[in-house]
Structures are given as structure tokens and as C-alpha cells.
């Protein structure tokens, strides 16, 4: 018997030379693509169409193959198909609903491909017609809302979310997508919250729901009152907020796990063995090969939650078991190919703390720790554009956290100690820290470690000035809280001071190259003022008097760097060039540091001469410092503990528009390739009663 093959909607017998036969649904599509109303010859045409298995490729391909004029000729039939799809969503038989949802997805994508250069208005007209748009879109949104909130099929809910993501991302710039006006008017916000608050729904659909919400929040956010922004900002239901946090934590954990797996695989490979033989000269190149796609979509969701909703801050510290150590569910989970920007949902279930009992042997974690680990990975390599955007967004999120009073309270809480294993960039001059040696400390220590790590590892030719500025601002905001609340944090402050001095040294060494691109004096002033903060207020927040002595020791020990900086800014502030004003600000800011150096250096030299010592030990220098504080005169500097609060609209609008555009494109790509497979859906509805 001849084998029957199916390709592109055609059925043919491989052994026969007869003309290929088209499957019935393709013949019905062909009727829609004529100027005649197909229901004239067959009154049951639309009823029968939604019993046929959808051929997505054929329908989309047919739409894309038509030119503008041809498409306009069949516009009435396209409108009719769209309207009948919406009617079919109200049917009792799930097969019809599945096929209607699939057809809507194909229609929207196909018409979008044809109208890439046109506005959303043209897409609305082509799909539904202006005259009927309001009513049709209202009916569509109400049907989708009902399906999402019903206790019915999980497959239908999944497909509803895919359709909504398809609608939202139909244009690259979502703010130009006029279809979304109807999504604003007919809100599905409550349906999204319901998904996030229910453990079962969250496991199945949480990822898509969170990404959808993040995109909807960004529709014309700077131009009009977006109802999704308003509603998200006032959510106070604990189950919903925790659900959202768990979805985000799971997606970030999945990324961290994938990275760790690749890192271990990399280290155990041949190249690692070769590196150990030859030495560490290749270590940076080896590490560059460890690459996992970043996940800007889920990071955007975290940002919007932290930025808009003060209640979400509590979720950051909500304890749950370390997700990488969870036992995997017994039921098989379909794996999905990894796609750009991590738009594919993570493969493992999100399990809330209520659903999984805490094990005494399992490290307790929280969303903030997971996020800090994620940040430590993506901020390692900022040469790649996606990682640069991810790194910037991580620092923006940390900026919002560092400004929040409640967040600072739990960051600095001595009763909330965690062991946070941040990823450190392999460098020739330092050994890799052993995970087991990590102490349990308040979470703010991990934030400071992350900032120090970034400062130390990114002094390079392509200097990421913007990220450095954000990094120093975060440290400053944390210090402001410590000074205000008199929090004496037991932290290795010397590492921070050393990193800051090395940064100043780098700026001076590369003055000519950097000044061609950046105003390095803005950053230099911020660094100098961090030292001024320690000098002026350190006695209120440094852990011990000896810590304050060590600060002076570091300034005196590294005095040559401060002397060189003073010479550089003095030279530029006395010239009538473009850097005169910013350089003079640094000159004035250095007054107390110079006073310390000029006061103690002669005393140290005198002590060495009297005691006939050529080189003083640290203890001897500290002894000189302690015995000469009383004769030191410092100037009181104003505004050291003041800062400008973060503002998205005025400073970050361009960044977020570009970021959302990038996410929108990749969500659409992901939907197009691997999330609308019909086989799994139809298995659930294999019979029609």
C-alpha cells in the first residue's frame, strides 16, 4: 500500500503520479481567500471550519503571500473569519475553542507580517474592520478573561495567554500597537492576578502571565494613564505578590542553574586541563565561552514590581528553599528549546514555600539572593549588548531597593543572615574563593560584595561609565541609610576602599582615552565623596574605632594616588577648557583627604626617624594615627548624606523603550516557533461529546 505523505497542506500518494490532494481545511482556507462569501455555497461553512484541525503554516503563509491590494479585496472575508473565531470562543465544545484560538493567532501574525511598516490602525481594520472593532474586541477580551478565570482546561488557558502575548507583541514598539487600547479598556489584570495567586495555575502559566503583565505595564506608560500600572501599584494581596515573586525567582534560578552546569562542564573539560597545565594565562578566554541567554523579560517584570509596588519589597525577603536544590516533580515536564532573551518559560515547576516543606539540610534562600546571584553572572561580561542591558537593569533594580526604607531594614537586619555565593570573574591575580568558606552575613554585605566585584573587574578600554556611576550611587545610598539609622555593619570595608582607590588610579592612568568619551570627573567626585562620607560620618556607622583607624591608614598608605588625582584636577581646573568646572569640584572635594595626608605623613616620618625604622609596620602607623587625631583639623562638608532619588520617566525612558522593544520582538519570535504546537492541545480534547 502506498505511503501517504503530508506537506504544506497537501496530501499525496508517494507512488502515484496524480495531482496532490489538498486536505479539507486547506480547501476551506482557499475559499476564504476569494472575494466570495464562503457561507453562500455552504451555510454550515463556519461551523465546519472550527471542527477542522488548524493548519497554521498554510494560513499564515497564504496571508503573507498576498500583496496589499489582494489583501484588501478579501478584507470582508478576513473580518468575517475573525468575528466567527470570537463567536466560537463561546462554544461549549473545547475543540472549537482551541481551533478558534489557534486561528486567531495565525490571523494576527499573518496580517502583522503583511503590515510590518504600517500602524496598528491598519492591522485593526484588516482584522476586524473599524466599524465593528470596539464590539468585537470587547467580546474577544471578555471571552479570554472568562477562559482564564474558569476552572476548565489548562491547555485552553495556556493558549489564551499565548494569544494575548501574540496580540501585545504584534508591533515591535508596543506603544504603537493600537490593538492594545482595547486591552486597556477591557482589562484582564484580575485574571492575571488569579493565575499568580493559585499554585496550580501559577505552575502551568505563571511565566507567561508575568511576562504579559510586564509588557502591558509598558504600553504608552509615559504618555497616558495606563490602568495596569495603576492596578499593579496598589496590589496588596500576599498570595498574589508571593506568587509573582516565586515565578520570577524560579526563572532566575533556572538561569543560575544553567550557568552553573555549563561552568562545571567547562571546568571538567579538556580545555580546563590544558589551562591547569600551562597556567592561568588563558582563564579569561576560557570563561568567555560560558554563555547562557539572559532573561530581560523576567528581569523587567521584577523591576516593575519593585518600582511600582511598595508591598512587593516584602516578597524579596520571603524565605523559600534554594530552588536549585529542590526535588524535581515526578510528572514529566515537556522541555522547550532555549530562545533568545530567555522568553521561553523555565522547564521546572514553581513551588511555593507552602507547597514544599523546608528541609533542615537545604539552604534557605529568597528572591533577593537569587537575583543577586543572577546579577553577579550577567554583570561579568558587559561587552555583549544583551548582557549590558541586563547588567544595567540589575543595577537599576538595586538602586530602587537601596532607596527603600523597608528594604534597607531587612538588608541590614542582623537576624537575617545568609550565605550568598556570588559568581566571581576568573582573574589571573586572584584565586577562586571556595564556596564553603563563605560566612553567613546580613544581605547588604552581598550587595556590597557585588558592587566591589563590579568595580574591580570592569576597568577596561571600553569603560562602562554609566554602570560605574550606578554602582557608586548604590553604595552611597546604602551608606546614607547606615549613617541615618546608625547601623554598624561588620563588613570588610578595606576591600571597598581598595577597589575605590584602584578605580581612581585607573581613571588617572587612562585620562586621555577616557576623557575623549566620558566626563570622568563626575565619577571621580562620587568616589572622593564616598571617602568624605567615611571620614565625616564613619564614627557613626563603622563597626569599631579600629575600623575608622584603618580608613586613615588606607588613605595614608595610598596617598600617592590622591596626590596624583589632585595634581590632575588642579591642572585642568586652572585651564579654561571644558573640564574646568567639573575638575574644580573634585579639587574642593579633596580638601579633607589632603588634610589627613598632610597632617599624618610628617608625623609618620618623624616617628620613623626618632625610632630609626626605615619602614613602619601597619600597627606602628596606626599607633601614630591614634595619637595624633586631636591635632587634625577637618572641614565640615555639606550634603554628603543627600542624594537624588531614582526617576524613570526623566532619565531612563529611552533605555526602557529600547529594552521593551527588544523583549517584544523576542517574545513574538518565541511564540512563532515553538509554543503553538497543536498536538498536545488536541490530545486533551480527543473526543467531542
TrEMBL record:
InterPro entries: ARM-type_fold (IPR016024), ARMD3-like (IPR039868), ARMH3_C (IPR013636). It is found in: Membrane. SUPFAM superfamilies: ARM repeat. The keyword Transmembrane applies. Keywords: Membrane, Transmembrane, Transmembrane helix. It comes from the Eukaryota. GO terms for cellular component: cytosol; membrane. This is ARMD3 protein. It comes from Rhinopomastus cyanomelas.
Amino acid at each position: 500500500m502506498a505511503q501517504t505523505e503530508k506537506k504544506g497542506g497537501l496530501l499525496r500518494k508517494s507512488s502515484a503520479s496524480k495531482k496532490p490532494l489538498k486536505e479539507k481545511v486547506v480547501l476551506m482556507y482557499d475559499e476564504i481567500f476569494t472575494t466570495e462569501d464562503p457561507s453562500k455555497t455552504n451555510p454550515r461553512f463556519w461551523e465546519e471550519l472550527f471542527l477542522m484541525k488548524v493548519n497554521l503554516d498554510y494560513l499564515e503563509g497564504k496571508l503573507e503571500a498576498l500583496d496589499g491590494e489582494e489583501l484588501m479585496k478579501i478584507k470582508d472575508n478576513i473580518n468575517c473569519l475573525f468575528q466567527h473565531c470570537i463567536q466560537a470562543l463561546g462554544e461549549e465544545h473545547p475543540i472549537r475553542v482551541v481551533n478558534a484560538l489557534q486561528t486567531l493567532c495565525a490571523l494576527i501574525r499573518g496580517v502583522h507580517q503583511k503590515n510590518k511598516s504600517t500602524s496598528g490602525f491598519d492591522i485593526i481594520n484588516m482584522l476586524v474592520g473599524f466599524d465593528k472593532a470596539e464590539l468585537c474586541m470587547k467580546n474577544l477580551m471578555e471571552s479570554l478573561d472568562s477562559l482564564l478565570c474558569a476552572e476548565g482546561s489548562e491547555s485552553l488557558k495556556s493558549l489564551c495567554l499565548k494569544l494575548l502575548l501574540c496580540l501585545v507583541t504584534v508591533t515591535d514598539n508596543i506603544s504603537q500597537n493600537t490593538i492594545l487600547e482595547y486591552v486597556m479598556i477591557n482589562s484582564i489584570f484580575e485574571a492575571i492576578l488569579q493565575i499568580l495567586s493559585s499554585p496550580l495555575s501559577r505552575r502551568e502559566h505563571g511565566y507567561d502571565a508575568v511576562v504579559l503583565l510586564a509588557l502591558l505595564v509598558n504600553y504608552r506608560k509615559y504618555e497616558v494613564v495606563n490602568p495596569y500600572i495603576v492596578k499593579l501599584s496598589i496590589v496588596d494581596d500576599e498570595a498574589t505578590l508571593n506568587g509573582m515573586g516565586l515565578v520570577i525567582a524560579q526563572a532566575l534560578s533556572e538561569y543560575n542553574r544553567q550557568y552553573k552546569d555549563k561552568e562545571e562542564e567547562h571546568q571538567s573539560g579538556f580545555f580546563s586541563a590544558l589551562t591547569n597545565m600551562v597556567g592561568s594565562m588563558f582563564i579569561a578566554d576560557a570563561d568567555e565561552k560560558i554563555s547562557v541567554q539572559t532573561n530581560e523579560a523576567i528581569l523587567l517584570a521584577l523591576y516593575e514590581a519593585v518600582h511600582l509596588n511598595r508591598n512587593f519589597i516584602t516578597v524579596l525577603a520571603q524565605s523559600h528553599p534554594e530552588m536549585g536544590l529542590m526535588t524535581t516533580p515526578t510528572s514529566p515536564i515537556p522541555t522547550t528549546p532555549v530562545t533568545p532573551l530567555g522568553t521561553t518559560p523555565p522547564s521546572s515547576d514553581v513551588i511555593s514555600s507552602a507547597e514544599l516543606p523546608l528541609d533542615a539540610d537545604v539552604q534557605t534562600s529568597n528572591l533577593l539572593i537569587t537575583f543577586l546571584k543572577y546579577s553577579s553572572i550577567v554583570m561579568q561580561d558587559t561587552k555583549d549588548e544583551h548582557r549590558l542591558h541586563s547588567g544595567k537593569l540589575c543595577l537599576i533594580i538595586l538602586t530602587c531597593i537601596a532607596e527603600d526604607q523597608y528594604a534597607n531594614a531587612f538588608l541590614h537586619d542582623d537576624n537575617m543572615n545568609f550565605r550568598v555565593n556570588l559568581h566571581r570573574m576568573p582573574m589571573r591575580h586572584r584565586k577562586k574563593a571556595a564556596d564553603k568558606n563563605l560566612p553567613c552575613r546580613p544581605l547588604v554585605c552581598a550587595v556590597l560584595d557585588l558592587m566591589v566585584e563590579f568595580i574591580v573587574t570592569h576597568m577596561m578600554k571600553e569603560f562602562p561609565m554609566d554602570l560605574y556611576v550606578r554602582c557608586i550611587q548604590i553604595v552611597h545610598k546604602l551608606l546614607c541609610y547606615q549613617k541615618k539609622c546608625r547601623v554598624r555593619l561588620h563588613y570588610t570595608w578595606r576591600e571597598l576602599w581598595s577597589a575605590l582607590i584602584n578605580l581612581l588610579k585607573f581613571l588617572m592612568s587612562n585620562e586621555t582615552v577616557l576623557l575623549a568619551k566620558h566626563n570622568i570627573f563626575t565619577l571621580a567626585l562620587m568616589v572622593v565623596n564616598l571617602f568624605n562620607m567615611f571620614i565625616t560620618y564613619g564614627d557613626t556607622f563603622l563597626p569599631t574605632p579600629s575600623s575608622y583607624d584603618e580608613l586613615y591608614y588606607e588613605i595614608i598608605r595610598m596617598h600617592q594616588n590622591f596626590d596624583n588625582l589632585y595634581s590632575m584636577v588642579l591642572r585642568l581646573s586652572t585651564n579654561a577648557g571644558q573640564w574646568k568646572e567639573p575638575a574644580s569640584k573634585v579639587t574642593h572635594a579633596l580638601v579633607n583627604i589632603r588634610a589627613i595626608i598632610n597632617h599624618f605623613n610628617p608625623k609618620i616620618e618623624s616617628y620613623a626617624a626618632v625610632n630609626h625604622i626605615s619602614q613602619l609596620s601597619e600597627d606602628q602607623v596606626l599607633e601614630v594615627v591614634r595619637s595624633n587625631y586631636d591635632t587634625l583639623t577637618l572641614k565640615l562638608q555639606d550634603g554628603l548624606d543627600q542624594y537624588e532619588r531614582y526617576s524613570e520617566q526623566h532619565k531612563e525612558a529611552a533605555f526602557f523603550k529600547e529594552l521593551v522593544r527588544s523583549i517584544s520582538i523576542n517574545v513574538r519570535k518565541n511564540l512563532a516557533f515553538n509554543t503553538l504546537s497543536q498536538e498536545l492541545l488536541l490530545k486533551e480534547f480527543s473526543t467531542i461529546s
